[in-house]
Amino acid sequence: MTKAKFGELTQGAIFNCLRTPDAGRSYGVVVSARCDIAHRKSKTVLCLPILPLKDWMSTVGKQEVILQAGKSVEKIASDILEKYTIAKESFQIYGYDSTIEILKIKNIKKNDLDCIESLKPYIEEKDIIKSNKQMKEVHNRILDSLWRNSRLDSHFIERIKTDEDCVGYIIDFTQPITLNRTILDELSLGLDKLKYDRDKSGKYSNINLDNLSEGEIFSTLQSPYIEHILQRFTSYYSRIGTSDISKIDFQNLKGKYEIA
User: Fold this and answer.
1) What is the pTM of this model?
2) What's phi and psi for 178, nearest 5 deg?
3) How far apart are alpha carbons 44 and 19 in whole angstroms?
4) I need a labelling partner for 7 at 20 to 30 A (CA). Which of 78, 81, 164, 252 fits?
5) pLDDT class for 243, splitting at 50, 70, 90?
6) Residue 130 CA to its chain's centroid (Å)
7) Residues 6 or more apart from 79 whose CB is under 8 A from it?
8) Which letter, b or e, does each residue of 145-177 get, where b requires 16 or more Cβ atoms within 10 Å of its Cβ?
């Protein structure tokens, strides 16, 4: 990682104002071929969003935790409710506190009450951080897959600025965005907010300078790291879907080679 040179645009350039599909803002990194940029072979430049790890985990990561562990957590709660002949939809209908009062009237056992109370953050707010052990394990497993770069849809980097501590960022392969070359040329020189405001719904519709004084390219991801990211990105988009092994063949092989 190096500081960007004034007026320079190249592969690996990182800037501060890429507009995301939800009309928000992320950092962006240029992944178009270095020679294409140098020789101005295209009017557009391909970029990938970069999200702080904290933001990624609070959105994409949270959804994945709920998808992987949410049903089992909800089943734990519904099983306890049914044990005391209370409708499993009670938390949604009456709210958490009222449902707990009903359970207490029904003389809920302490271990069942403790179990339900451990799920309160998830039941009330879908809070996965303060929830039960299973959710925390899934959360930590997702983090580990990010740090090890074992996921196909993203790439983890420690920092995007030369002078910052290790914050953690996720380069998202699932939402590539093209920008007009002239916009990135302007960012390399510093794009003034006033100029952006005059045409933000037209020329600058794919960037977002709201609450920023200017748009800028502030650093460059160097070789071989940018090439590695590009290699992983192209692999993600060029992968070919094939059928899974049949259940019969799977069971036959499992029977032959698994150690009982």
Assistant:
1) 0.80
2) -100, 140
3) 16
4) 164
5) confident
6) 20
7) none
8) ebeeeeeeebbbbeebeeeeeeebbbbbbeeeb
Other CB atoms within a 10 A radius of the CB of residue 78 amount to 16
CB-count exposure of residue 218 (10 Å: 0-12, 13-18, 19+):
middle
Predicted pLDDT at 160: 96
Confidence of residue 178 (pLDDT cuts 50, 70, 90): very high
Beta strand pairing call for 2-3 and 44-52: unpaired
DSSP 105-127: HTT--HHHHHHHHHTHHHHHH--
* Coil vs helix vs strand at 4: coil
Residue 195, Cβ neighbours under 10 Å: how many? 15
Note the pLDDT of residue 21.
81
> How many CA within 13 A on the CB side of residue 146?
24
Contact status, residue 133 vs residue 143, Cβ threshold 8 Å: no
Q: What is the pLDDT of residues 52-91, one digit of tens each?
A: 999 999 899 988 988 888 888 888 899 999 999 999 899 9
- What value does the mean pLDDT take over residues 200-217? 94
Compute the average pLDDT of residues 203-213. Answer: 94
Rounded Cα–Cα distance for residues 175 and 22 (Å) = 11
* Paired residues of 9 in beta bridges: none
Centre a 10 Å sphere on the Cβ of residue 199 and count the other Cβ atoms it contains. 10
DSSP class per residue in 200-219: TTTTTTTB--TT-SEE-EEE
Q: Residue 131 pLDDT > 70, yes or no?
A: no
Dist CA 245 CA 249 (whole Å): 7
